[in-house]
Amino acid sequence: MSEGDGDDAVIRVALADDQILVRAGFRALLAAQPDIEVVGEAADGEQALALVREQHPDVVLMDIRMPVLDGLAATRRITGDPALGEVKVVMLTTFELDEYVFEAIRSGASGFLVKDTEPEELLRAVRAVVGGDALLSPGVTRRLIAEFAARSREPAPAAALAELTEREREVMALVGMGLSNQEIARRLVVSPLTAKTHVSRTMVKLGVRDRAQLVVLAYESGLVRPGWLG
């Protein structure tokens, strides 16, 4: 974010969607916020990739279906480039259960939003993903988890989990179940800041980019199972 990392920092956002009216609507909403700046627009995945490399935005709102290079492929290139490690990608889709949402998260996207989401929810999501907090609502997270679980093979134990403390494993499992930091704090009877610290340390130890990938790893490792969704 520009102007340092204080509370008055401006969140720099790039828009990638092949529909000009969609981009115009998002731009109007985002640009009206004092803490958000739209740094550019792209109409396809190749343009999005070039824009991200040039501007290094904090967040990219990336449509899944675009010409030339689709959003999924563009996301893989962004998240796979060490020079763009701080860029967060949020996928845009028409339906919550879009067939590509699952693969988008696996590709490194920090989450996804439906295009007809409420304006307040879009703004909250942009701010949340930059802050490293939960982006997906619990309901959407659980649907994503259910789809992941249905497609996954029998999970194999992850050696990396051996580095985690017992509390960090517990926190990771709760993240995997779709709980927010606030909900984790209530469950463990700790402060929200302590819960956030545990989540952050767990992510650092496992080398994951964000919370969404932590959810995926929780299932891949077998730490969380589908039957725990409730």
UniProtKB/TrEMBL annotation:
Cited SUPFAM superfamilies: C-terminal effector domain of the bipartite response regulators, CheY-like
This protein's record includes keyword Plastid: no
UniProt-listed SMART domains: HTH_LUXR, REC
InterPro entries recorded: CheY-like_superfamily (IPR011006), NreC/VraR/RcsB-like_REC (IPR058245), Sig_transdc_resp-reg_C-effctor (IPR016032), Sig_transdc_resp-reg_receiver (IPR001789), Tscrpt_reg_LuxR_C (IPR000792), WalR-like (IPR039420)
Keywords: DNA-binding, Phosphoprotein, Transcription, Transcription regulation
GO BP term, pick one: phosphorelay signal transduction system
Record-annotated Response regulatory domain positions: 12-130
4-aspartylphosphate modification, residue list: 63
Stretches assigned to the HTH luxR-type domain: 157-222
GO molecular function terms attached to this record: DNA binding
CDD domains recorded: LuxR_C_like, REC_NarL-like
Family annotation (Gene3D superfamilies): 3.40.50.2300
Database matches in PANTHER family: TRANSCRIPTIONAL REGULATORY PROTEIN NARL-RELATED, TWO-COMPONENT RESPONSE REGULATOR
Name the UniProt record assigns to this protein: Two component transcriptional regulator, LuxR family
